[in-house]
User: Fold these one by one.
Assistant:
Number 1:
Amino acid sequence: MQTMAGYGVAVPLELVRAAIFFAAYILISFQRLPGVPMSRPAASLLGAVAMVSIGRLPLAEAYAAIDMDVIVFLLGLMIVVGYLEEARFFEWVAQRIVERTTTPRMLLAAVVLISGVLSALFVNDTVCLVLTPLLLEVLRPLGVRPAPYLIALATASNSGSVLTLTGNPQNMLIGLRGGFTFGDFFLAMLPVGAGALLLNYAVLAWLYRAELDRPFDAPVHGPPVVMDWPLARSGLAIFALALVGWLAGLSLPLVAISAGALMVALARRDPTPALARIEWPLLLFFAALFVLMRGLETTGVVDALTGAAAPRLEGNGLERAAAVSGIMLVLSNLVSNVPAVLLWAPVVPSLPDARELWLLLAMSATFAGNLILIGSMANLIVAERAAARGVRLGFIEYARVGVPLALLSTLWGALVLSR
């Protein structure tokens, strides 16, 4: 047992590392502690540095802990998506679909469909970032409250992102750690995601039925969107090639970063604006979390967690699905879905039916994001972008939709995946 000497007392190094890990996770969980205004990436970076400098995790071991497959996969996809954002592709698609709606219920269905499908392909955070201002512009002359449609955008982005490995960061992590191909994951999640999007619309349509019965004050028209067609065509062609590569079973990170590099080459313009759209804090968040998890693994806590979890996950499929989903629903709303998945990542391979467990983790961590307003980054993006334009999305109003939706979607996912 390694120890640290301090003030004449020898403290086991394992205890120090465990304390650093849990302190970092507390900072990640509670973003508004008095006197500690710290974002999740900043909190994870602070913990990773403390793990090396105070916890004495060797620097070489910290570097080795960072899963470069995950980082490279995310980076490559973000580059392509950044160029599509520059081309205004997402806004153009949304406008074309929304302008064909004539009633509040049709508009609600269109928002759920657009958000869900685009999020499945291009990462849900990006979709919410781009579409929130457009949606508010569409709603302004219609004489309706924006809240139902903003909640639809946020929740459907979470629900739809469960469908693919490119839908959200935790799916990417699970796909690489669980050895899934793009096609395998999509086929397994297709009934889960399709059912969740139907539930998404049904819950919203029921809860806001009185508002949705009132006609619009004016025809639906969005602000004019001029798409950069050459750039959009290049981006879509490259993304299609990447999809073909992933479906063919080629390396997920290699295909992604090759697509990103090809996009930079074929765009034939200054890449700075597109690269500025990359979520660099998210990449930092992942890298630091990997270091934190490596420090925790050296303490024996992960082995103890494996031993405690194994007996509880040996029941029938539905019992196990309920146990995993319930834990992830709570854990994802405490520490966010990516840190919650990383806590399980070292445990799952040693448990029976690991493939099913990975899928359950992906499903439950994603649907947990719909529970409350702070449950996912996509929700917060919608709320913050709306607030910047004078529209407040209330915590209670969101929870009125999010709680039943998260519970029903998770139940549906557990039933499908435990068959």
Note: The CA atoms of residues 165 and 175 lie 6 Å apart.
Number 2:
Amino acid sequence: LLAILVISPLFGLLSTMVVEKRMAFFSDALGHSAFTGVAIGTLCGLVDATWCAVALAVVFALLFTWVQSKTRMASDTVIGVFSSTAVALGIFISTLDGHSFTKFNSLLIGDILSVSPAKIGILALILLLVIVFWVLRINRLTLTATYPVLAVSRGIRVNLLDALFNCAIAVVVTLSLTWVGLLVINSLLVLPGAAARNVAKNMRQYTWLALLGAVVSGIAGLMISFYVGSSTGASITLCLAVFFAVTFCFRHRK
């Protein structure tokens, strides 16, 4: 429950800018890079490969930001290049010398019971930092997401803001991967923002609706998974899908 109460606000906040910046598959690409980091850490004999995965995901996010600033390609194209490369490298490393991929199957589904108090504390600190960053830079983030050329003309350091935002996503996705699962973690960074976007009339409503929807869906998904014995990540995703469906039905009332 503590993990959900920390993770869901993080995903709710970050999802608003993910949707506005049209980076729906970025978290999926980061999940693949995190998987590669876990494979590398395991190959090196590390007891906890999480930090190796975090480091690689941050490098991945910074490299993506740099490449995106140097090319005119659309974000989804650049994300596709990085995502396919990361997943191929992860599979290549994890199957070296004929090793079986099955030992990494747990990363695909996730297990909320694998959460540790230390990682909850780290994510709580990250949540605090993200909230401070949001309060101080939300207007600039919104401008860079919608009108990047105008943001540059106003003296905003777009590349720096993008790098900080992408690194925040990288750390959150990587630390949450073993609890939520690679197969559904992308939905947690898309559905809250997409659902809130259906009915929000301004940025304030957009942010609060995404936060509220993420937290309520997180708690509801946790309760459902507890009583029916299903995957927590999948249960939360289905609750978020219901949230999106409800807001979609009311979208014409904005």
Note: Residues 117-146 form the longest helix (30 residues).
